[in-house]
């Protein structure tokens, strides 16, 4: 499934993509009656939905499957749209698929060539920094360049979204704790990032982290280390790599983090960016007004972000 969070008629809703439609899971469950085998209500927020674990996922599949069969009947589809069970793309605004994650844990220098292009050797242990929810940006929405810096850079990344929380998770079972995967652009304000040894402020400007467009469930991504990531800026290929060359794969990162922190449903783990970022080019390629950044990951889709002047 491709799970989304949208703003519709002044409300935040959780849905599933179904071709040109988005199925509202909460109202879809009501329209079909509670799923016969489980009888659990489907929540209206992504964090609550993910906390429901495999039962919620199974119920969502049942709701989506039951309603997909009705989409071929135009009158039935129109009725479901009037009732807010179906949403057309044009009548909703997409939000980050997980709009309010409990934690956003980002990994630095997780691709060897990216470490080297920044003047560092590949790390022996994972390097982490944090982002805050206010820094997320909805898919397709413009990123507004800050007035205080011209050094705005792009970083395409794979994100693992935690479904089943836990502490001291064995690496061999770590992927069982993943609900799904999505795409991230870790837009970085480089001069602020490098003013001190702590990267936090340069990584947390308001609305500087495009996320989405959907949370693709784990069953559709059998191996997160077998994906291709590309980044194009205004049509020019800047980054391209396989996730197989991460220094620390997704399962290792989850196990490592959970030695210290209890992971919770909705936590995001941004797994790092490959080489090719703007600061390392000669001359540097900073983002400028009018650019469009397109991050693509196989099986997950495309995250596009237009860049706007302040």
TrEMBL record:
This is Fumarylacetoacetate hydrolase family protein. It comes from Candidatus Segetimicrobium genomatis. It comes from the Bacteria. GO terms for biological process: carboxylic acid metabolic process. Pfam families: FAA_hydrolase (PF01557). GO terms for molecular function: hydrolase activity; isomerase activity; metal ion binding. InterPro entries: FAH, Fumarylacetoacetase-like_C, Fumarylacetoacetase_C_sf. Keywords: Hydrolase, Metal-binding. Belongs to the FAH family. Residues 103-307 form the Fumarylacetoacetase-like C-terminal domain.
């Amino acid at each position: 499934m491709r799970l989304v969070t949208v703003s519709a008629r002044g409300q935040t809703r959780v849905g599933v993509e179904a071709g040109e439609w988005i199925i509202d899971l909460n109202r879809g469950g009501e329209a079909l009656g509670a799923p016969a085998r489980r009888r659990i209500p489907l929540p209206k927020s992504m964090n609550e939905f993910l906390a429901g674990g495999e039962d919620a996922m199974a119920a969502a599949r049942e709701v989506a499957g039951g309603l997909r069969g009705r989409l071929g009947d135009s009158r039935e589809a129109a009725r479901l749209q009037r009732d807010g069970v179906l949403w057309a793309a044009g009548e909703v605004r997409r939000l980050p698929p997980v709009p309010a994650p409990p934690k956003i844990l980002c990994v630095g220098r997780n691709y060897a060539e990216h470490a080297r292009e920044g003047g560092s050797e590949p790390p022996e242990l994972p390097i982490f920094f944090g982002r805050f929810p206010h820094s997320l940006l909805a898919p397709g929405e413009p990123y507004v360049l800050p007035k205080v810096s011209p050094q705005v850079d792009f970083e395409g990344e794979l994100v693992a979204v935690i479904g089943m929380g836990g502490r001291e998770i064995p690496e061999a079972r770590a992927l069982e704790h993943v609900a799904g995967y999505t795409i991230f652009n870790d837009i970085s304000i480089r001069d602020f990032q490098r003013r001190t040894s702590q990267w936090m402020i340069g990584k947390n400007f308001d609305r500087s982290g495009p996320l989405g467009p959907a949370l693709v469930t784990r069953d559709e991504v059998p191996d997160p280390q077998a994906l291709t990531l590309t980044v194009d800026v205004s049509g020019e290929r800047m980054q391209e790599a396989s996730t197989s060359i991460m220094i620390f794969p997704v399962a290792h990162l989850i196990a490592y983090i959970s030695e210290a922190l209890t992971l919770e449903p909705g936590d995001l783990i941004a797994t790092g960016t490959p080489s090719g970022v703007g600061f390392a080019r000669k001359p540097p390629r900073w983002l400028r007004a009018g650019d469009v950044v397109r991050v693509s990951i196989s099986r997950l889709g495309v995250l596009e972000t237009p860049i706007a002047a302040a």
